[in-house]
């Protein structure tokens, strides 16, 4: 039962905070109406919270530190990132927000380096391909380190994504771990598609939703080479949701790897919740490293679709048949735990409302939608979706952030 009144009320409240952002055009080809020629030049001059529309072209590396910014890239925007750095996103404070959409980082060793961010970071529709040769082949291509709210959506990474001591959601992504390589006689080992590590005292949950993740392949005829798992979960907590597929790397004549790897010897165990809809692809037995404490159980999950100005943002709440589900929409906020509810809410309780209510039957999800006014002031708005359901008591789904671009 959708509630258009609730959605309209939320959008009405959101507009008061969203219509003040200033928009600037970045065009390396100095086309009509441009304000800046380089992204990094714009970042040094535009006010906090501004929106950059970046036109097609090849751009220099840039960095973001302790500020809010929206960067929307039109098709054909490419950034060259020198080894070993990614695009640094650092020290985004609570209450600040960084959004980057549509960027291509091709033939580069690294994509992003997100560190020490208490505020919200959303990376959407980022495409990456690794170089075919050179130093650093096989290293991680994206790092999220000690950050509180990072959402990575609909991205394609040709190398390992590392999540360290962070709260992160990875939704709708294709990630290929780095293959093992022979670099002048030195073996560079294969890496998983996603590596998650939590140190003592730094709790964090990694949520992987509707992703296709593959581990790196072993190097044939190279002694000591081994394939990598699709996911390595070390001393942290992971939730695998929806139609996620985890495929171990190709053994290429070596012993196969588990689809999910782990490590022994730490005070904090690796804890994994996995929906039965998740697929593990490996010839290894067991398919999950014994150090990972795994519970296979039905879980709630939410997916959403971003939209252009004047379009409709949509969301779907999924779960097992017979589950009563409330789909909630609102402005993203810091994670909040409520007594008696398993899981955190990533929504601002003062600017959120229920969007739909229903019982899941025959696998059909509960839908929700929001029509976005065709007003440039709404560009950069993030609409958060999350569900609450009666599944072994009250439990929350993953958060899903849809973007107005």
Topology:
Elements: H1 4-18, E1 23-26, H2 39-43, E2 50-54, E3 57-59, E4 64-65, E5 69-73, E6 77-79, E7 87-90, E8 97-101, E9 104-105, E10 112-115, E11 120-124, E12 127-128, E13 140-145, E14 149-153, E15 156-157, E16 160-164, E17 168-171, E18 174-176, E19 181-183, E20 186-188, E21 194-197, E22 205-209, E23 212-214, E24 231-234, E25 237-241, E26 245-247, E27 260-261, E28 270-274, E29 279-281, E30 292-296, E31 301-305, E32 312-318, E33 324-337, E34 341-342, E35 344-359, E36 366-371, E37 382-390, E38 394-396, E39 400-403
Parallel strand pairs: 1-2, 2-5, 3-6, 4-7, 5-8, 7-10, 8-11, 9-12, 10-13, 11-14, 13-16, 14-17, 15-18, 16-21, 17-22, 18-23, 21-24, 22-25, 23-26, 24-27, 25-28, 26-29, 28-30, 34-38
Antiparallel strand pairs: 19-20, 31-32, 32-36, 33-35, 33-37, 37-38, 37-39
Characterization of the model:
By secondary structure, this protein is mostly beta strands. It folds into two domains: 61-296, Pectate Lyase C-like (3 Solenoid), CATH 2.160.20; 301-403, Single Sheet (S-adenosyl-L-methionine-dependent methyltransferases), CATH 2.20.130. The strands form eight sheets. An eleven-stranded parallel β-sheet has the order 1-2-5-8-11-14-17-22-25-28-30. It has an eight-stranded parallel β-sheet with strand order 4-7-10-13-16-21-24-27, with no helix packed on it. The longest helix is centred in the N-terminal third of the chain and has 15 residues, at 4-18. The relative contact order is 0.12.
